[in-house]
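Homework help board

Subject: predicted structure for assignment chain

Our instructor gave us this sequence and asked us to write out the predicted structure in token form, then describe one feature. I got the tokens but I'm not sure how to describe them. Can anyone check?
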Amino acid sequence: MPAQHTIFMLGAVDVGKTHMTTKLANAFFMRGFRVAVVDADIGQSDIGPPCCVGVGILRRSVRFLHEVPLCCIFFVGSTSPMNCIRESICGTVSGVKKAKELGADVIIVDSTGWVSGKHAVEFKIKEIMHTKPSFIVAIERENELQPLIDSLLNHFPHRLCSSSSNAEDVVDVVLSASFSAASPTVSSSPSLLPSSSPSSSLSDSSLPQRHDIDIDIDIDIDAGERAGHILRLKASENVRRKARWYRRRLREIAFNRYFRDARNRLFPISSFERTPSEADEGVICGFFAAPSGAVKEASEVGADHATDSAVGAAAYCEKEAMGIGVLRRVDRRSGVAVVLTPVREDEVVIRLGRTRLWRVKGRLREFKLACSG
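My token output:
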């Protein structure tokens, strides 16, 4: 393989993206390639805790994606991309960049299942264009991805589909394309055939009524890196749909596993990116290494946040996080906060997220946190 390749897994919730990611990772690994997985499915994370984009490098074949060793995480602060669009895109881009720095030959991005509706389509297009994948593997039950694919065809001119979900077929196409980049046709496998392209449009009545989404991401895109291939796969009939309550339960299991060795620690309020209040208790937070001269007086933190929150969001999601925590208690009078975290370092900057966890009967449970602003 002459260059690093990024494969972006695209599909709705519960179509088998993670299963196919695992199969592809193993298939490339068994052929001698260094394989990285960027787990950008922030609500159903396997590599790293929820609310984060996790990066892992395969050391051996794995049965499940959570067996891939974690290298680093990028904190986005929520289990739903609708609540952290900017952070999700920046975290995914940063994860891919990190995987390239680690020398991966193949980088597989397991993305979220938010694909339906106008805002979801806009989000996915932004995420894909900034990630700059060589290939998009689109898994669908029917033709639910058609609006997305219609929009992507302007940038990804070659479109293929498969009647099976055979990872080896996808690997063969990636390898044949990488060695014949000058050829306009890359399909040499009989199981991969050109797909039809029925036109499809979004009706206004099907769009979610959200007017608070801003997806203007300030990342330069090199037009020369946009060209790639879209491989459309039919979702397996054996893939089971999970109920929403069950997906939340899986997140809570992941959270409790991550915080198994955590303890309550005291941190000065000045360690926070913005001054926390009692209303923030229970909110998940990300820990970052404090640069020299980063410690501020508590009175300065709120002022900085008021003028630079958007820049701060982009800046922190591009940095590797040391870990995450849960803000348990804020004591403004003494100027300290209690945070449950496995992080042991003292010189840190703490950024608040948008997901709330409370301890109920000895276990952390997830509760909704209303979006502000």
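Reply (TA_rk): Your tokens look well-formed. For the description, you could write something like this. Residues 181-227, 297-308 have pLDDT under 50 and may be disordered. That's the kind of observation they're looking for.
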